[in-house]
Amino acid sequence: MKKLKLLFIMALTVSMAGAQTTFDLDWYVGIPYADASITIEPGDTVRWTWTDDVPHSVTSDSGSQESFDSGILTGNGTQFSYTFTQVGVNDYECDVHSNMEGTITVDNIASVEDKFRMNISFYPNPVANKLTVASLYKLDGYKIYNILGKLVAQGAASGNVTEIDMSNLETGMYFINAISGDMESTFKVTKQ
Question: What would the pLDDT profile of 57-103 be if each residue is shown by its tens digit?
């Protein structure tokens, strides 16, 4: 009985250590490529959610590491999930709208912090007025530093996407520090 109990505890520990993550992506006409492209680990699941009322599919391209296809689905709130198991690159698109495409890269990532850093997207760059920053993780805030490392602006964020008003900043290069909990990712942006 003690052996059986010990085996159960060991199996539960191994199962909990291998727990993976589900990442949510919105899926709609006009989605920027960067918002439909993420890097995950083997065993992670991607869940696409239709955010408009027109028909879409999530279909892997012929050269993808794994093959997946939602079929054509319609309806705001419709979802399709796929769990990726193999390291590699998976380009995909919507069979109905050729301008809807993205890439799911599956890599052996070391930590949650690495996932956060690898999955920050920002556009446009260069930026004139508003910079959009998107993440798979909820953003709490941001800081903007000039090329000399001086803090020139900061603000709060809530949600996975935030807009940063850069219209009052001088032309030049800036470093944006995106913050989610105790995780941070810094990237370079040019202000026009």
Answer: 999 999 999 999 999 999 999 999 999 999 999 999 999 999 999 99
pTM: 0.69
Q: Which residue has the tokens 């705001």?
A: 76
* Residue among 126, 119, 130, 127 at smallest CA distance from 165: 130
The listed CATH number (2.60.40.3080, 2.40.50.140, 3.10.150.10, 3.40.250.10) that belongs to domain 114-191: 2.60.40.3080
Distance separating alpha carbons of residues 90 and 102, to the nearest angstrom: 8
Interior/surface letters 108-122, b for 16+ CB within 10 angstroms, e for the rest: ebeeebbbbbebbbb
Q: List alpha helices for the chain, DSSP H.
A: 2-17, 112-118
